């Protein structure tokens, strides 16, 4: 589901209905050409502080800020037993909380997800709601300048707010819910399985709507949810012939040879990005550059 899809459901066909949700037009981003680096740095730092505070308060298996008392939870669960209806409700809520894209998938089809900081996640939390928030392509396009790093931090902040709020919402429906960012579960294979996009040559999720210009978060839950289907729209073939990210990467961290999903991807085994993206080179450039880099996102023809 996209933000636009949910808007139609929540407000009707008339997008001018201000009583409901209006699709994102990126108008919340204000661009200041030539802004000094210290301004972008301060914006990025503020976003990171908010993100860290939310993670400490709302992320992790032990967090139950929205959990109901036992009897109340039982009543709430009884009202939310239909996987299809639940998925629709959760997707609409996610969009209201700021997601631009949202999908669902089963964890038992993704074996690798439990190898990534998920040992404390209860086995019954076998569903994932995968959320993507779009970043402003104009700001990311300035990479590796500080403006792009600030936009990346804002993306992380927004994804954290969205996942935190959705986890509380699911807990209010009587179910367990664990919000997660990069530190729990492999985001890209989860997002691919949830139908948000495909794996790109830059080892990132490439979405139809925004290309790789997104940040991903997840909510793991035991709520019955109908799973979405994977989608394909030609990313693998295009990336085989393109190579812009390979040529543009400042430290040359993206190998010419890469290993996209194949039919075995259905088992959840995504080849480690370390096979064709050199993390040490990437982070080394961040250090020498004085800030993060998003050049592989900026030059991707899918970015918009």
Q: Which helices and strands occur, and which strands form pairs?
A:
Elements: H1 3-11, H2 37-58, H3 70-78, H4 83-96, E1 101-106, E2 127-134, H5 137-140, H6 146-172, E3 177-180, H7 187-193, E4 197-199, E5 205-207, E6 214-221, H8 235-241, H9 244-248, H10 279-289, H11 295-298
Antiparallel strand pairs: 1-2, 2-6, 3-6, 4-5
Helix pairs in contact: 1-4, 2-6, 4-6
What does this protein look like?
The protein is an alpha+beta fold and 304 residues long. Helix content is 39%, strand content 11%. It has a four-stranded antiparallel sheet with strand order 1-2-6-3, with helices on both faces. Strands 4-5 form a two-stranded antiparallel ribbon. Helix 1 packs across helix 4 and helix 2 runs parallel beside helix 6. The radius of gyration is 19 Å and the shape is globular.
Task: Report a brief summary of the structure.
The chain is built from 11 helices and 6 strands. The chain is an alpha+beta fold. The chain has one domain (34-298).
């Amino acid at each position: 589901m996209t933000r636009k899809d949910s808007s139609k459901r929540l407000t009707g066909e008339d997008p001018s209905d201000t009583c409901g949700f209006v699709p994102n037009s990126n108008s919340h981003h204000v661009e200041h050409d030539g802004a000094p680096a210290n301004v972008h740095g301060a914006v990025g730092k503020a976003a990171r502080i908010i993100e860290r505070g939310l993670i400490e308060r709302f992320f992790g298996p032990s967090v139950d800020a929205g959990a109901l008392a036992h009897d109340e939870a039982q009543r709430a669960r009884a009202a939310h037993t239909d996987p299809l209806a639940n998925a629709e409700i959760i997707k609409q809520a996610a969009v209201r909380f700021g997601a631009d894209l949202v999908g669902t998938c089963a964890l038992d089809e993704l074996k690798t997800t439990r190898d990534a900081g998920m040992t404390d996640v209860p086995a019954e939390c076998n569903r994932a709601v995968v959320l993507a928030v779009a970043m402003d392509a104009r700001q990311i396009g300035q990479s590796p300048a500080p403006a792009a790093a600030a936009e990346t931090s804002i993306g992380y902040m927004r994804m954290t707010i969205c996942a935190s709020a959705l986890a509380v919402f699911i807990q209010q429906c009587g179910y367990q819910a664990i919000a997660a960012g990069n530190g729990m579960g492999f985001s890209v294979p989860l997002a691919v399985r949830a139908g948000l996009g495909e794996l790109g040559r830059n080892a990132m999720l490439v979405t139809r709507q925004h290309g790789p210009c997104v940040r991903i978060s997840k909510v793991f839950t035991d709520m019955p949810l109908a799973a979405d289907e994977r989608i394909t729209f030609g990313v693998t073939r295009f990336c085989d012939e393109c190579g812009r990210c390979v040529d543009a990467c400042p430290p040359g961290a993206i190998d010419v040879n890469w290993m996209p999903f194949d039919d075995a991807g259905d088992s959840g085994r995504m080849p480690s990005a370390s096979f064709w993206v050199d993390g040490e080179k990437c982070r080394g450039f961040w250090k020498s550059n004085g800030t993060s880099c998003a050049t592989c996102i900026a030059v991707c023809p899918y970015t918009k």
